[in-house]
Specification:
Structural class: alpha/beta
Low-confidence stretches: none
Oligomer: single chain
Strand content: 15-25%
Bound molecules: 1,6-di-O-phosphono-beta-D-fructofuranose
Helix content: 40-55%
Number of domains: 2
Largest sheet: 9 strands, mixed
Distance between the termini: 45 Å
CATH topology of the largest domain: Rossmann fold
Radius of gyration: 25 Å
Length: about 550
């Protein structure tokens, strides 16, 4: 197989480990923990895995003997750079416990466990994947492990392969389910430990003890490189405003990090918009105001970053979407009437007539294409597919309309040309940065130590991440500690709290203190591509978000 020159060099990269993991390891147990909220309910649901202590690893003088252990691993959800290194870390870690240990990978995500699809990950097979991006070593999937029938089916294959521990690499939902599984197996004395690993480019699985999810560093570096290149193009040609939507599902961490790295003219933060209860009109006003100010200074170009989840954070849009979901609910009389109308404009008119007065006003103010999209693209449950909405175009078109009104009133002089982009898949499988390569390997290695110590219901944790890798603090965090009760699909469920952008934390505060200047005065920063070799100052920098949080 032909591989790129970079891949050949990267294959030789030895990820750095915290010093506590390099030799023999000692486990130090901290105080007992509590869930972040709803302690009584969570305790009731997790009697076997609630309240366990935080664990930190320290260097030990003597290694202990370990029996060989068979371990299973699952990649869950969207790809994130570094997944292959988590698996490498687990593999090397369990081989260090005992060279006869084996690692099995379940194929295509959690579904592989239920359907008994697996491979043994051997040293030779793994070698081709070390320090590479992607999840193709075993594939990933979005099947949710939620039902007891799935847990029992999984247990059959785990028993057959004599697997004593399962590592689930995933985001907040997958780790919540990992914890439910840990509790289920513990309650039945099934003899299978379950350990979680924090993955997602979205950066929304983090808290006091999990400083960041893996993949966020590499993905935001890739997007920032692209944004920087676009900024330089914009600044050279001086004729376009680039509206760039950035992946990240609900939270705006990706947009915020990219803004900190590239200093664009505009970056919308969904959490702030929700907090201020802003309307679409106010957002458009804000953006058009900046375009006009820059044009007055002769700068008829710019870059605006828009988070993927924005729409659902604009209160009036949220209301509109909820009403549309009702009106067009599968099998309803209004859905049948809607479908019977052939003409698009008439369909929009029909929907507008059914909406509340406020929602109707918002709906009719939308560009026709977007309004059509809102009524036509539905998911299998019949709901509006918010992620398909081209928010960048919606805002671009609305700003254009606003600017032409401002032109008539003499408040805007100049041209407004747009280019649209959506960055997401460009970064999810990039070769992991040194940070992610090291962090992921350490997370995997940490999981193996937790397994060796017989722990279950823990998430691998590696902290102190702005220090050199040597000084990182590895250990384990009981998953129940991150949980609270939330209403999901009408039922109260224990879940890991999703971390949205905090408006009172340092990264947002730094951005908010500088954005007005970046808006008007071109202050672009061009980060360039991820560097894998060279001076540490360019190769090993963690994200700005982490640096500001830990300053
Ligand atoms: P995870 O939370 O599963 O890590 O997903 C991350 C993500 O990239 C989101 O940013 C994005 O909204 C979603 O996956 C897209 O997933 P898909 O390609 O499956 O539609």
């Amino acid at each position: 197989m032909i591989i790129s020159a970079l891949q050949q060099e990267r294959a030789r990269y030895q990820p750095k480990l915290p010093k506590s993991l390099k030799g023999a390891v000692k486990l130090v147990e901290g105080a007992k923990t509590q869930s972040v909220a709803d302690q009584e309910e969570i305790l009731k649901l997790f009697p076997n895995t609630y309240g366990m202590p935080l664990i930190t690893f320290e260097e030990a003088s003597e290694a202990q003997d370990h029996a060989a252990v068979n371990v299973g691993v699952i990649l869950s959800g969207g790809q994130a750079p570094g997944g292959h290194n988590v698996i490498s870390g687990i593999f090397d870690g369990i081989k260090k416990l005992n060279p006869a240990s084996k690692l099995y990978g379940f194929l295509g995500g959690p579904g592989g466990l239920v359907d008994h699809k697996y491979i043994e990950i051997t040293a030779e097979y793994l070698d081709g994947f070390r320090n590479t991006g992607g999840f193709d070593i075993i594939g990933s999937g979005r099947t949710k492990l939620e039902e007891e029938a799935q847990f029992d089916k999984g247990l059959e294959i785990l028993k057959k392969l004599d697997i004593k521990a399962l590592v689930i690499i995933g985001g907040d939902d997958s780790n919540t389910n990992a914890c439910v599984l840990a509790e289920y197996y513990a309650a039945r004395n099934a003899g299978v430990q379950v350990i979680g690993c924090p993955k997602t480019i979205d950066g929304d699985l983090k808290n006091e003890v999990i400083e960041t999810s893996f993949g966020f560093d590499t993905a935001t570096k890739v997007y920032s490189e692209l944004i920087g290149n676009i900024e330089r193009d914009a600044n050279s040609a001086k004729k376009y405003w680039h509206f760039i939507k950035l992946m990240g599902r609900s939270a705006s961490h990706i947009g915020l990090e990219c803004a900190l790295q590239t200093q664009p003219n505009i970056c919308l933060i969904s959490e702030e918009i929700a907090e201020k209860n802003q309307t679409l009109e106010e957002i458009v006003d804000y953006m058009a105001g900046i375009v006009a100010k820059r044009a007055a200074n002769g700068e008829t170009f710019g870059v605006a970053l828009i988070p993927e989840g924005l729409i659902e954070f604009v209160p009036e849009m949220k209301k509109l979407i909820a009403e549309l979901n009702d009106i067009l609910a599968e099998g309803s009389a209004s859905e049948a009437e809607f479908k019977a109308i052939a003409d698009e404009a008439a369909r929009r008119g029909y929907v507008a007539g059914k909406l509340s007065k406020e929602s109707s006003k918002v709906f009719t103010s939308l560009p026709a294409g977007i309004a059509n999209q809102l009524t036509l693209d539905r998911d299998p449950h019949g709901n509006v597919q918010v992620s398909l909405i081209e928010t960048e175009k919606l805002l671009g078109e609305m700003v254009k309309k606003r600017l032409s009104a401002m032109k008539k009133a003499g408040a805007f002089k100049g041209k407004f040309g747009t280019q649209y982009h959506f960055f997401g898949y460009e970064g999810r499988c990039a070769a992991p940065s040194n940070f992610d390569a090291d962090y992921c390997y350490s997370l995997g290695y940490t999981a193996s130590v937790l397994i060796g110590a017989g722990k279950t219901g823990y998430m691998s944790s590696v902290r102190n991440l702005t220090a050199p890798a040597e000084e990182w603090i590895a250990g384990g965090v009981p998953v129940t500690m991150m949980m609270n009760m939330e209403r999901r699909h009408g039922h109260l469920k224990p879940v890991i709290q999703k971390a949205l952008v905090k408006l009172d934390a340092a990264p947002f505060r730094y951005f908010a203190a500088n954005r007005d200047e970046w808006a008007v005065k071109t202050s672009f920063i061009y980060p360039g591509p991820i560097q894998y070799f060279g001076p540490s100052s360019v190769c090993d920098q963690p994200t700005k978000t982490l640096q500001l949080e830990q300053q």
